[in-house]
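TL;DR need structure tokens for one chain.
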Amino acid sequence: MATIKKTLLEIVQDILNDMDSDKVNSISDTVEAEQIAKVCESVFFDVINTIDLPEHKELLTLTALGDSSRPNYMDANSVTSMEEVRYNVSETSGQVEYKTIIYLPPDEFISRILERDSSASNVILVSDPTSGIQLPIINDAQPSYYTLFDDRYVCFDSYKSTVDTTLQTSKSLVIGTKYPTFTVTDSAVPDLDDTIFPYYISECKSRCFSIFKGGPDAKIEQFARKHRYFLRNDRWKVKQENIRNNYGRN
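>> reply
TL;DR here they are.
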């Protein structure tokens, strides 16, 4: 299938041409080319932060803390957003049974777990990594709920100590997103789907004209507005219903 993607050098060369600037064979050839490349980087992160891009959704894992004093916590630092969290609750080696773990807002999560008897034999007190506040956590059941108090550490309501001493990275499954990287090199191709690329390039051109030429080009602005409209529905390969389920981080 043909692609309309371009390398960063090709994008910079395209913008320089539209601006009637000097031609380059490498981004490092001129200061202006380097400045345009940095603008392209800035636009890239603006685009991925303002548009829900399906190409950045993927299967991810949470990172186990490996801390027996916080067995119910996992680290979500590498994850930007989580739509669904599952955990393999199978106790048979070589088998999987991914259970959906329900997200609860922090206040509701706290209300539920504080109803527990902290003196019960199956309840341990675990210190939250950020606040240090002790929370009653069940140690003989697989997790059912989770929350985040600080947008990094995922707190589950329970774990099963007879299976694992802490929750495990290999047993977590997250449908979510994480930030892609942007590399300022000649051969780098911005991590965007084909349907996004024309819009991305037009936004780069528009911003460069505003910064370096004192104002946007009318035709480029018209093109950018047109693609903003189409992106509302056409960014998905499979048409999506208007579903607004949120599970945790946004």
